[in-house]
Structures are given as C-alpha cells and as structure tokens.
Design a protein that fits this description.
The chain has 496 residues and is of the alpha/beta class. Helix content is 34%, strand content 16%. Bound molecules: pyridoxal-5'-phosphate. Pyridoxal-5'-phosphate (PLP) binds at residues 141-143, 167, 216, 221, 249, 251, 300, 302, 307, 312.
C-alpha cells in the first residue's frame, strides 16, 4: 500500500515555537564525528576524561523461561550480558552498542541512532504507520514529552481538551503555563465522542478554539478505563472536523489484559501462539489510524522497563518533530547517555521478538495482580447498589464508584455536597491504614472567559464520586490486606 505525506500543522504552533531559532552550534555538532574535520567548534570534553571505561549489565534472556520476575542466574542459558565499552565497538544483535565515548558526549538531540532504530522498528511493527514522513524522537519520558508539547503548541490563555478525570501532573503542567484544561466526560469505554462533538460544535465563538485533545486511551489514569476502537475512529473524525491535534499519552499501552472473569472456574488466560497474535490482540492506537500526522504519540519505558530509565519517545510527523528537536536543544538536550546505552544495549540483544516476549510476560503478571485486586474488592466491599467496582482491562488502576447520596448524613452533615463525603471517606481510609485516592484530585475543571455553554459542562452523574487504587505497587498479600481495610472503612462510614 502506498501512503501519503503528513499535512502541515504549523498553524497550531505557539508564539514561542514560531520565535525559536535553531542553535547554530547544533547545526555543526555532527562534524565532531567526522575524521576529516579538526573540530575546534564547541566545548566538548575529550572522552578520555570520562571516568567510565565500560558498563556491564545482566538482564534476563528471552524467551524468559523462568518468567519475567526472576533475576538472571549469570549463566548464558538465562542471562543476557551487555558489555558496552568506551571506545571499542561491541555488537548488540544486528547492530552495535552505543560506545560510551559517544553516549556520554554532547550531540544527538533526537537520541542515539541505535536506540532510535529499535524504537522505529517497534513502532512500525505495532502501529503499522499510515503516512510516510513519520519518525521517533527520544525523550526523558512522557512527563517531559507533555511539557514540551504544551510549549510547542500553546500560548498563555489557550484552552486544551482532556478527559474530565486525568493524570493530575498533566493538568498542573498545563495550568502552570497558563493553559486551561477543559473537561470532556468519559465512562468505562473512555472519552465519549458525542460529548466531545457537542463541546466543539457549540464552542463559544468569542473564545479561542482548542487545538489539542490530550487523552490517555489505555488503562486511563485515574479511571482505569480503556477506549474502544470504535470510539477512537469517531474521535479521530471529530478531530479532523475541528482541526484538533490528538495527543495520546500511552505509558500503559502494553499493560493490556484479558477481561476480568468473576467466576474463577471460567478464568482462562489467553495464550498467544505467535507474536503476531499478540500484536493483533492490542487495542488500535490513534497513531495507527492517522493518515495526516494529526496524532502525536507519547510512549515511555517507565511502566515496562523502569521509571528511573527516564526514557521515552514521541512518534509524530517529521514536520512536527522538528519543533521538539529545536526545543530540546535548549532544554533537555537529550536523555541520559547511560540510560540510552543500557536500554539500547539490552533491547538490541533481546531483539523485537524478545521485547514482545517481555511485554507478554508483563501482561501475564498484571493479569494476575488485577484479578487478585478485583476478587478482593468483591470479597471485602459491602454489596450495595451504592458502590460499583470497575474491573479494568489495562493499566495499573482499579476504581470504585460511590453514590455519595447513599451516605446516611449526605443531606445533613455534608450539605448534599459529594466532595465533602469524598473528603470524609479519604480521612477514614487513611485512619484505617490504607491509601486510595479520591477522584477529585484528578478532575479537570478549566473553562474559558467568557464561559462555554452549560450543556458542554453537564456532569454525567452529579452525586458520583470515586476512589482510585493500584495493584501495581505492593505484593499480593499486602494488596489484599489494603483492600480489606478499604472495605472496613466504607462499611463504617456508610453504616452498610
Ligand atoms: C498518564 C501518564 N502519563 C505520564 C506518566 C509519567 O510517565 P513518565 O515516567 O514516562 O514520565 C504517568 C505516570 O504515572 C501517567 O500515568
């Protein structure tokens, strides 16, 4: 299939982006690697003054026969040995390692080529890209990617759209830059396209129209919901109609699981006969349906390899990535060279198939953790229509929805204000020795001046509140104990 080029979205760039010049020094830095040039151009320290001569790392070896949670024995049978040298070129699968003399030097704002080529192949394998001029750019994770995105596209006083409950750091990063985050309602299948369309069709013409929809489609933080493929198609169409860019923030994409089955005897974990079976089981991504370069995808190694790698990547059209490169030349420059050398050295030895084996192993682990959490919620939470447990199909979070009006003192002590009940439950759970967090912490509630019509701000369930918990952070016995404490706190508070 022949695919076309991306469209030009430079009309969406911020004033800051339009004003930003390329650093002239960065335009010649590649000549540092050219043996025919005597490089007297920049303050690059000689690599002989880098104190590290080599890096040696062990990780488990695909196909991870002992599961992904076991430490490697050191034996070649189950251990992947990575050795990266300062000056010597070492082999990593079909490619080379990133020598430390280069990894620890300035340059390569896009990221090191050996890492980028792995990430590019992975992107094509998973998303089967639908336009020709796309590329990837290494970042220090999605927190950085989002902060850069806001700078690249938004001016102070702009408004962006996001799921009504969303990752609080993303809201605060926007608000700190003077950007409103206008909420779009979501349910267990993710953001609701009809509500998005109503908001945009009725956008107050006296205010600047949003250019960006920020979404966490898979294992949404905080609700745990995952957006259906049909909704993504509908949302992409609305984005085309209203000239919106879609920012998909997908750190949980590979934590997709089987649907929760309450009856243990009916539980059967999916076994994948091949890697392509696994790939076909994954939710459709926005980037995979994008023919125009309208989607910017933010991916991260944080949840699949380790948050401290501080390594992630952006997939977008080359035209858009140019703006990120120019910004990063002035901000992060590039992710840590150690991190890139270690991660690329490991992944290039594992190969694309080995990385998929790792992700399949991770899926298995999270399936089990999710099942233990949801079983415990059904066991320990009072059975009443006032509470709803939402078993997620992806990510790290479960939520429990609560009808605040079911509280015996809703109208009296709490003056019919759901947020006061939410605070009282929070205080109670902390006293009971468990931490689950109130949904209100994640609520986007920005508006424009003059405001948007009342219809655009209608709540799905005005007395509904929810709490978010995770099954990722503690071992299974602690998880059950925590959920039992949560159940006791709710019973006492509501006198169920
Ligand atoms: C939706 C979302 N985006 C981004 C992040 C942060 O990702 P990173 O570690 O890649 O910066 C998180 C982490 O909790 C998250 O939930």
């Amino acid at each position: 299939m022949t695919v076309g080029e991306s469209l030009d979205f430079s009309h969406h760039f911020s004033e800051e982006t339009k004003a930003r010049k390329s650093s002239p020094l960065k335009t010649c830095i590649h000549l540092f690697q050219d043996p025919n040039i005597v490089f007297l151009g920049g303050g690059l320290p000689l690599s002989k003054y880098f104190p590290w001569d080599n890096l040696q790392i062990e990780s488990p070896l695909p196909p991870f026969v002992n599961g992904i949670g076991e430490s490697p024995s050191g034996d070649d049978k189950d251990t992947c040995h990575v050795e990266v040298k300062k000056n010597e070129i070492t082999k990593a699968g079909d490619t080379n390692d990133i020598q430390l003399s280069r990894a620890l030097q300035y340059g390569f704002s896009m990221g090191q080529p050996e890492l980028l080529s792995f990430v590019r192949d992975h992107t094509q394998l998973i998303h089967n890209m639908k336009y020709s001029d796309w590329d990837v750019l290494a970042t220090t994770g999605n927190t950085c990617s989002w902060e850069s995105t806001l700078r690249i596209f938004c001016n102070r006083g702009d408004t962006i759209l996001a799921e009504q409950y969303t990752f609080s750091s993303s809201i605060y990063a926007a608000e700190a830059q003077g950007i409103n985050v206008f909420p779009v309602p979501l349910d267990e299948h993710g953001l609701i396209p009809e509500r998005l369309e109503t908001i945009l069709d009725n956008w107050n013409p006296e205010t600047k129209k949003p250019k960006i929809l920020y979404t966490i489609p898979t294992g949404q933080n905080p609700t745990g919901s995952s957006m259906s493929d049909e909704r993504k198609v509908a949302i992409y169409r609305i984005a085309q109609k209203h000239d919106l860019l879609i920012l998909e923030d997908e750190p949980y994409y590979f934590l997709q699981m089987d649907a929760y089955q309450k009856d243990v005897s009916q539980r059967k974990e999916t076994e994948f006969a091949s890697h392509s079976d696994f790939i076909s089981s994954l939710a459709k991504s926005f980037i995979s349906m994008d023919t125009e370069g309208r989607v910017i995808r933010m991916d991260s190694f944080s949840k699949v390899l380790g948050p401290g790698t501080r390594l992630g990547w952006i997939v977008a059209s080359k035209k858009i990535l140019q703006a990120y490169i120019k910004l990063h030349e002035m901000t992060i420059q590039n992710p840590s060279g150690f991190s890139q050398a270690i991660v690329a050295g490991t992944l290039n030895r594992w190969g694309q198939g080995g990385f998929l084996d790792w992700l399949i192993g991770l899926r298995r682990e999270y399936n089990e953790k999710r099942d233990v959490a949801i079983d415990a919620l059904y066991e320990y939470l009072p059975e009443t229509p006032a509470l709803r447990v939402n078993p997620p199909t992806a990510g790290m979070f479960f939520t429990v929805n609560i009808d605040a009006s079911a509280h015996p003192e809703f109208a009296t002590k709490y003056q019919s204000k759901p947020e006061l009940v939410e605070q009282a439950i929070y205080d109670k759970v902390i006293k009971s020795g468990v931490l689950v967090v109130p949904g209100i912490w994640f609520k986007a509630s920005g508006d424009t001046q003059p405001p948007q019509p009342a219809e655009s701000k209608k709540e799905l369930d005005p007395n509904g509140i929810f709490f978010r918990g995770t099954y990722a952070a503690v071992p299974l016995d602690k998880l059950k104990e925590g959920i039992q404490r949560f159940g006791i706190a709710l019973k006492e508070e509501f006198q169920f």
